[in-house]
Amino acid sequence: MDTQLHAVALNCTLKPSPDQSSTDVITDQLLTELASHGVTAETIRIVDYDVKPGVEADMGTGDQWPQILERINAADILVFGTPTWVGHMSSVAQRVLERLDAALSATDDQGRPVMFGKVALVAVVGNEDGAHKIIADAFQGLNDIGFSIPAQGGTYWNHEAMNPKDYKDLDETPPAVAATNKTAAANAVHLARQLARDQYPAT
What we know:
The chain is of the alpha/beta class. Helix content is about 35%, strand content about 20%. The chain has one domain: Rossmann fold (3-Layer(aba) Sandwich), CATH 3.40.50. It is built from five helices and six strands, in the order βαβαββαβαβα. The mean pLDDT is about 95.
């Protein structure tokens, strides 16, 4: 019987709720694809929480990162979603990676980093260039922290240069994006189930 998996999407938009977010649209599409494989899911819009700057798991009074980290720890698949701003991931996304850095020193009962065995997908939207580099930077950071990246685990949409348009305002999902979402989700589930059955060796 297949292992029951859970995913958490981190929406790193700069827009607080209830503002509409293109990042929400693409991460929701990935979660829908994951659900087709029996994966349960939830979304956290990071900007709605007080996530303090720093590189510790808990930055003290008022810091709400620990409750987010608890939900990441309980998940098998992480969906890391960010908009593109001035050619880079959002400042919120960068802060998430900085806060996740603390996981490098946290280990399980066999000495493995706690994020070993978890799979990460990256989703990027924007009306300017930058998606390939953002995905590369996010992959490197997440992999350093301990997440595994499935084949073709990044999905993105960029509108043509100098002609702004938001992903959330499209009449339909471009076929290439829909196909990439489908493949990324299927490969993430496959890898997560493999790791659930056969975790990385103890260090």
